[in-house]
Design brief:
The protein is mainly alpha-helical. The chain is built from seven helices and four strands, in the order E-E-E-E-H-H-H-H-H-H-H. It has a two-stranded antiparallel ribbon with strand order 1-2. A two-stranded antiparallel sheet has the order 3-4. A hairpin with a 2-residue loop joins strand 1 and strand 2. About 15% of the residues have low confidence.
Length: about 150
């Protein structure tokens, strides 16, 4: 049983999401979750995932569609993603890509960093470059999901 993920205790994870097709993302919130808490959890998860993957503030700003200053404020806790914003949805996808990659490399952060920065024949470019556009981020998530689905 997972008791901790990206520094969050299992009972702190208030946001659960499921992905259905490229254009149909649903965010289901636990009954007692407050909107501001959801934004804080996703913000913190995105920042921690970026740190573990070695993704720069510049790259993360392009992935989430925010300014570098906003990303810096996210890291200091001065800026929180709002659940109704597109950047929140992109952060969910980014965290999802981190989780899938982390599972694929058995928690080896250096292997995950190498994978992100290396050319990928199936994707056509290094995944970290693709992730800086919405279609590219979706492609990387789909690719990682397909790796996990192989039995």
């Amino acid at each position: 049983m997972v008791t901790e993920w990206l520094g969050f205790a299992a009972d702190e994870l208030l946001v659960y999401y499921c992905w259905r097709k490229e254009t149909d993302m649903r965010v289901a919130l636990s009954a007692d979750a407050e909107v501001s808490a959801d934004g804080a959890v996703v913000t913190k998860a995105a920042v921690r995932a970026a740190e573990r993957l070695g993704v720069s503030n510049r790259s993360l700003s392009r992935i989430l569609g925010l300014s570098e200053a906003s990303i810096s404020r996210m890291g200091s806790g001065a800026y929180t993603l709002a659940p109704r914003d597109k950047s929140f949805e992109l952060a969910l996808l980014f965290v999802r890509s981190f989780r899938a990659l982390d599972a694929s490399v058995a928690g080896d952060d250096s292997a995950a960093r190498r994978w992100l920065e290396s050319d990928n024949a199936a994707l056509g470019r290094p995944p970290v470059h693709l992730m800086q556009s919405i279609p590219g981020l979706v492609s990387v998530v789909d690719y990682l999901d397909s790796l996990r689905a192989i039995v």
